[in-house]
Amino acid sequence: MAIEWTTAEGIVDQLGKVFVQAMLGNMPGNSVVRLGETGEGTAPNYQVENDSSVMTYSGRSHREWAGDSQAFNDERLSSPFPREDIFRVFLSRFRSPKGSARS
Questions:
Q1: Across all residues in the chain, what is the average pLDDT?
Q2: Helices 83-94 and 8-25 sit at what angle, rounded to 10 degrees?
Q3: What are phi and psi of 85, to 5 degrees?
Q4: CB-CB neighbours of 84 under 10 Å
Q5: What whole-number distance in Å separates Cα of residue 38 and Cα of residue 102?
Q6: What is the DSSP letter of 71?
Q7: CB 60 within 8 A of CB 23
């Protein structure tokens, strides 16, 4: 089954706090993320791009990808989503208005 990632809200809502927090930890401030669109969409592999590099990560471990690079060809990846968009939605979902963490 293929999945299509279309909005930052959809990414945060479907993948949840723990996944998105780990993914954000792998994203430098001025980067974009492209998520894998094959599989079930529960722990997609992802590619982080910025001006000087492209890094690929396992969605299960959030460690650098050691497998076949074909898993990251353009046909299998979402459009890019800026870190700032993912982070904004993450904060709106998982931070209380006073800035303390929600459970």
A1: 91
A2: 100
A3: -70, -45
A4: 14
A5: 31
A6: G
A7: no
What is d(CA 46, CA 13) in angstroms, rounded to the nearest whole number? 17
Residue indicated by tokens 């990808």: 65
Whether pTM > 0.70 for this model: the answer is yes
Which residue is listed with tokens 């050691």?
A: 66
Q: What is the pLDDT of residues 46-75, one digit of tens each?
A: 999 999 999 999 999 999 999 888 879 999
Does residue 99 surpass a pLDDT of 60? no
39-77 burial, b if ≥16 CB within 10 A, otherwise e? eebeebbbbbeeeeeeebbbbeebeebeeeeeebeeebb
Burial of 27 by CB count in 10 Å (0-12 exposed, 13-18 middle, 19+ buried)? buried
